[in-house]
Amino acid sequence: MNLLTEWLHTWRVPLLALLVLLSLGMAGPVLAQADPEGEIATAVPATDADTWRQVRSGETGPNYRDSRFDSNYNLINASGETWRQIRNRWVSPFGLIAICGMLAMIVLFYLIVGRKHLDEPRTGRKLLRWTALERSLHWSVATLFIILALTGLNLLYGKFLFKTLFGDAFWAGMISGSKMLHNYLGPLFGVLLVIILAKFLVRNLPSKHDWTWFKQGGGLIGKGRHPDAGFANGGEKVWYWLLATAGLVVIASGLVLDFPNYGQSRDAMQWANIVHAVGALGLTAVALGHIYIGTLGTEGSLEGMATGYVDETWAKEHHNLWYEEVKHQAADADETLGEESTPPQRSS
Question: Which range is the signal sequence, renumbered to this chain (predicted)?
Fold first, then answer.
């Protein structure tokens, strides 16, 4: 025991010195890992400004490609930045200008001109204008359009308003619900829109008298009788063809975004997003005018889509050519209750 104790006392100092040297030797790598510059210098040599310039220039070699399977995108995707700039600098401001500008025009028009009332008293005799099927299609498409417009606007602008007002928790639930509604109701809207466009195609074919309707501003410019119009007037036909062109483009681009599992490239998704946003914002702005004219702006228009019937006076003033074709079917209001038949072929 005495010999062991003596040996430990003798070698204590050299052992402590050895332990200190070992700890200093291990501290070097640890400090190098704690130092970001040192770590980069050892893990990725020559990662300097010239290397990043190569990446930025579009180099897609194995050293500059992202790690996802079968990807040809480099570490810095210039097209993504282009998409972001177009969306934030052009699309978003354009949407606000278009929608707010339309709202301002409607308010000014209502304050200056007011509601368009019928020139003559109502006769009390009704004409069937919209069947139950047609009204169901219209209200279904209109309801879906409004939901998609509101959720789309929330996705684009909502964070600047609702997140600031109500905080992150409320905003998270709101944006999640908006995204789900938008993604799931979009395809349904597309199917119903195609059906309603096919059903109303013949009524919305262009006619010679449409040009006169536009020159007179639908009867707002000049004096005298209203311009000629068949079942659909010039303004209604414009709305129809906007839906048949821009509306179908919005649906197609939305499906590209809604189903990304069919091999779309990132570039295709980015351009589909831009096209979808521009088309949807433009249609939303025009839809505000359509909604105003069909409700508050024109006496008798809303009741036609609500009940299916319009007064003789309304038909004569707004759709005189159609009225001439169906005037023999006019009936007293009490006779039309519970009675609905398919209207005959109407003029364009």
Answer: 1-32
121 within 8 A of 311, measured Cβ to Cβ: no
C-alpha span between 257 and 269 (Å, rounded): 6
* Torsion angle of the four alpha carbons 191, 194, 198, 204, in this order, in degrees rounded to the nearest 10: 140
Give CA–CA dist 301/309, Å, rounded: 10
Sheet containing 125-128, strands listed edge to edge, beginning at the edge strand earlier in sequence: 309-311, 125-128, 331-332
Q: For the chain, how many helices (H) and strands (E)?
A: 15, 3
Q: In this structure, which amino acid lies at residue 154? A: N
Q: 257-260 long-range contacts, Cβ below 8 Å, gap at least 24?
A: 258/183, 258/186, 258/187
In one letter, which amino acid is 3? L
**What's the rounded Cα separation, in Å, for the pair 32 and 35?**
5
Residue 196 neighbours by CB under 8 Å, 6+ apart: 137, 138, 141
pTM over 0.85: no
Q: For residue 205, give the amino acid letter.
A: L
pLDDT tens column, 208-230: 989 989 888 877 666 667 888 99
